[in-house]
Amino acid sequence: MPENRRTPSRGSGPRGRTGPGRGGAPRPGMSRRRRPRLTGRAAVLVLVVAVLAVSYASSARAYLQQRGELDALRADIAEKEASISDLEREMRRWEDPAYVTQEARELGYVMPGETSYVVLDEDGEPLEPAAELADPDEVGPEVEPAFWEDAWASVLLAGNPPRNPGTPPLTEIDGSEEQQ
User: Cα 118 to chain center, whole Å?
Assistant: First the structure.
């Protein structure tokens, strides 16, 4: 029975295009109809493409947003790791007895048997720990004026005494100047 069910080969059928709208002149009695531009299949295809585009656009937006968050978290992790290494270095410094002694002195502590001195300013208040004292070599001793400068200043003062605002000015004998 399988021999009876053979399908004709491609070459055995009529050659060329046949049927309505397949070229050639229209058959008598049939008019050419214009096909609509948008068929049902094309509409479904456009709808599927639009749904896929919206789906991929929202997925791409979520991907880019998560990518930005991931970059921010990586930067935060790098910053925290740098902070951890700084703190570990600080912890190792505190294991050094010389560093501990230096920090204690900056806070005003003294070793047993030492005497603590507090530097006061001109008002008698203690200087702040952050205040810096001037180098004595840079300031130098205050130079006092020579004795003849003081003597000459007293001669000038004797020749032109300052006026006391409480005493009235001198008047001439003829009365041309009035007392104020």
Answer: 42
73: nearest Cα among 87, 65, 61: 65
Residue burial 79-93, b: 16+ Cβ < 10 Å; e: rest: eeeeeeeeeeeeeee
pLDDT in tens, 81-124: 999 999 999 999 999 999 999 999 888 888 899 888 888 888 88
Going by C-beta distance under 8 Å and a sequence separation of 6 or more, which residues neighbour residue 101?
A: 111
**Euclidean distance between CA atoms 108 and 116, whole angstroms:** 8
* φ, ψ (nearest 5 deg) of residue 148: -70, -25
Rounded-to-integer distance, Cα 26 and Cα 15, Å? 19
Query: Cα-flanking dihedrals φ and ψ of residue 128, to 5°?
Result: -65, 150
